[in-house]
Amino acid sequence: MTILLVCYFAFLLGFIFYSALGLYHLWRFGYVGDLTKPAMVVYILASVGVVILTVILMSLRIWSTNLI
Amino acid sequence: MAIKGKYFPTQAKDEKVFLVIRRHWIIFFDIGLFLAILLVPSIVFLFYFFLAQELFNGNLGNFLIVFLGMYTLTVLGLGLYGFVNYYLDIYIVTNQRIVDIKQNGFFRREIAELHLRQIQDIEAEVEGFLPTFFHYGEIHIQTAGERENFIFQDVPHPYTLAKKIADLHQAQIEPSRHFKSRESFSAREGDIDDYRIEDYQPKAEKDPELDGSYHKEEYSQDDSNTKNESAEVDSGTKGREDFNDEISGTSSSHELSEGEEVTFDDNKN
Description:
The structure holds two protein chains of two kinds.
Chain A: H1 2-29, H2 36-59
Helix pairs in contact in A: 1-2
Chain B: E1 17-21, H1 25-38, H2 40-51, H3 59-87, E2 90-94, E3 97-104, E4 108-115, E5 119-125, H4 129-134, E6 136-143, E7 150-156, H5 158-173, E8 215-220, E9 228-233, H6 240-248, E10 263-264
Antiparallel strand pairs in B: 1-2, 2-3, 3-4, 5-6, 6-7, 8-9, 8-10
Helix pairs in contact in B: 1-3
């Protein structure tokens, strides 16, 4: 089942890159007083929350050392 | 209160932003609702995972945790994409032009602009149940020449906005008009009712130096033949009603009636 963990962390890298792109757009083209900053904060909090929750759930499980 | 500093890349120093228009919130609500529905499986899984852990023993549980973790992040990523597409699409109306900024995904951004003088016709349209119920629709701005027409899609209160753009267009094409208090205009989103068209009515007597086109003229009224009045007026495109407005604040209290003639005597000064 190690492959699952490898897939997850590879996905996480892609997700971080993708999020950085989106957040960069909001940061660059947003203006003072609009909703871009709150949206960025909500997105970051939600994403980090999901990742933390997933990692916690994964750490509670028993993972075999087999690849598949 | 007008937005200070630059609001978009090509904004000129003396250019004031009057309206910042985004598509109606119901457009993003559709996307948000769809994404919220997509999140239901993750929430259900989480609920059952803590309630009945024995159901998820073994590899199935591991697989579901990883899969739903990735799935939830994907839904959040789609939400970010939808928000960027929705929120960074902006229509900006300044005292000089209309700027249409379109954000298509992360890697395509188009900025088109139209000078207010190039506007030929403005048409507002509300069609359908939801647009009628939530007061949003399209504004078609017909341009001079072979340029593509500008279309504001899914904007809130299209009739009001069309009227205000028409007023700004009118103020732009009449050289005698100038703005009494530019700083009093609001450019915050949604505050489209904050600015008053009265704010840019001509006040030549107060600020004669503002525009070089202002000059003195004397006129006489044929019907009364009583006196000549002097007033600060613009000799350009001013109509009879505007002329009445201009002279009403001076020593003359006489208002011109329909059909009444006004003659200008340029020799007197």
